[in-house]
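Tokens as discussed.
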């Protein structure tokens, strides 16, 4: 597993010192509990959620800290903040609501950015895929998007699982920079009994990231989607489905906390709080 840590925007990712090892990256969602006079209770909670991170750098130089502060101040461009998290990179860097598309049939964001899909049972398999799949009806231009950065020296491996319908597709568009894209690739949907996990990849030698979206016009059935971002030359192992561990794009919840420790030793501390928001605003 790569230990490098990158943070930035679509205008550019920057390699930096990794945060301290105790980096909370919890999921947050709606929750409400009501207690009844008869001693019972009712609970309502969202199945879908957003990621929230608290990153702490206990000791770094002022120049290293300025990189983080500049991102928070928009110096590296507007829009969502992205990270390459080595704890998620070799598992599944997609947000859960992309990795498990059936969430869009309940309270999650529908990937077709329109009418919620129809829930159906996932075919029998031994690879731990979600028990439910979803049938989406895709109209022209009706799709959400999620962008995954590919840091220098890395390659994104992609696999989408499900079955063809009447014309809906999953499209991977490699991005050259924040303005220019490569040629979109319509992914061949893999079967949930296939343990090879991935059938498409893009490397940082040519691209800075990859955008996933729905394409075509018509229906398709989705069971799961996986993306791993590994060092170039590292082949992803075969195996079962891995649920989403990443996010769709972050924003600073407040200004970073900046603590000078020693001018003589040039040491400061920085704490930032980031929340996933982009999927709900795009």
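Sequence:
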């Amino acid at each position: 597993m790569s230990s490098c840590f990158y943070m930035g925007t679509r205008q550019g990712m920057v390699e930096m010192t990794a945060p301290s090892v105790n980096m909370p990256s919890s999921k947050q969602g709606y929750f409400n509990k009501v207690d009844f006079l008869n001693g019972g209770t009712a609970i309502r909670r969202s199945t879908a959620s957003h990621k929230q991170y608290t990153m702490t750098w206990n000791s770094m130089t002022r120049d290293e800290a300025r990189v983080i502060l500049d991102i928070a101040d928009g110096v590296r461009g507007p829009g969502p903040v992205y990270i390459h998290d080595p704890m998620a990179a070799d598992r599944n860097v997609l947000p859960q609501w992309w990795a498990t598309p059936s969430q869009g049939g309940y309270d999650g964001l529908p990937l077709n950015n329109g009418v919620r899909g129809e829930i159906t049972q996932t075919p029998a398999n031994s690879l731990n895929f979600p028990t439910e799949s979803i049938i989406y009806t895709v109209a022209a231009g009706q799709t959400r998007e999620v962008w995954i950065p590919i840091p220098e020296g890395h390659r994104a491996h992609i696999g989408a699982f499900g079955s063809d319908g009447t014309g809906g597709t999953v499209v991977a568009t490699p991005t050259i920079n924040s303005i220019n894209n490569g040629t979109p690739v319509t992914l061949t949907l893999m079967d949930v009994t296939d343990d090879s996990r991935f059938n498409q990849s893009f490397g940082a030698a040519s691209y800075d990231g990859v955008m996933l979206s729905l394409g075509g016009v018509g229906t398709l059935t989705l069971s799961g989607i996986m993306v791993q971002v590994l060092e170039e030359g590292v082949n992803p192992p075969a195996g079962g489905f891995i649920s989403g561990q990443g996010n769709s794009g972050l924003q600073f919840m407040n200004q970073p906390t900046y603590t000078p420790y020693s001018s003589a030793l040039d040491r400061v501390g920085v704490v930032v709080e980031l929340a996933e928001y982009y999927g709900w605003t795009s």
